[in-house]
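INFO  loader      accepted 1 record
INFO  loader      residues=384
INFO  predictor   begin
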Amino acid sequence: MFRVTARQILAIAFASALFAAGLVFVFDRYGSRLLQQSGSAAFTETPVPGITSPSVASDEQNNIEVYRALSPGVVLITSVSSSDSFFDAGEREGTGSGSVIDAEGHILTNNHVVAGAQRLTVSFGDKTFPARPVGVDPDTDLAVIKVDAPREMLKPVPFGDSDRVVVGQKVLAIGNPFGFARTLTTGVISGLQRPIRARNGRLIEGALQTDASINPGNSGGPLLDTSGRIIGINTLIYSPSGGSSGVGFAIPVSIAKRIVPQLITDGAVVRPRLGIVPFNVGNIQARLPVTEGVGIYQVNPNSAAAAAGLKGLQQDETGEVVLGDIIVGVDGEKIANGDDLYRVLDKHHTNDVVQVEIFRDGRRVRVPVRLIQDRGAGRRRLDE
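INFO  predictor   done
INFO  writer      dumping tokens
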């Protein structure tokens, strides 16, 4: 049995707290992969009216046609929240962008655009309407809100295929940078499979990198291909100066396709958990039996980990604290840290059985774990 000192316990506890705070729900994975396709126009593959085939249109003509056809479906979102700061009391206002995705008034945007809002409004050019949240997913920084606007004003922006995107292809961004409504910028895909982090610290894999100008206020707006389809949701910029530096990132629409139906139906994404308080072994400056992996600080009661017999820190009969299990692999894939574990579990469903390889008592052991839904992670309507 590997015993740890009081100093090591404190180091593990401190690292666990930082890790848990930085990677909220680090062991969640996406729920149903077999979601029913929405009947909304955003999920159809019919040609976008008014856009000539990019193979025969000039670059200028394509810019004009894409903007003319799709900009009516791109909205300005204004969120009003209360500030509790002693130095900044009162209301705080923020703006972002969003895309109409169906004729019922559902709008896709970033979670950080609407997070904490007490009031939401959506502007279609010169007309503004109140909106309400429908579902949010902080782990992918996506959200769906709903506006009760006249049906003739709701012009859905169709979804494309981010899996077919290649570096060098032309893209167009429509949004509301600095509040300037329905601004068009163009560029190319500069890189693929970029790992970025949501504001809760969760890793978002596969982001699209673009040099199309993206600035504050573009968040939540569409990154479009030359056929006028959403291939990404503009989310963040890399900017030491605070302005556009030609390095912007968009969440691939493949992620949105997967979770939007759940956000509309359930208000949240259903994810199973292992149910542990974790820490990254590599972050601990202490003598541990392995140099990489995800250690278990504590196993939550009634969790998948508890049912499988996984162990956290314990006390032996003499009162000494004994190191718990360290996860080093899942289904044959190496687990070096929490991001690895999240990536592997993302491939599974509730009730799947995964083979978790752990380091315990000086040897590697495989333990089957049946993933279960986390209590309270199902239906969570924001307006209930």
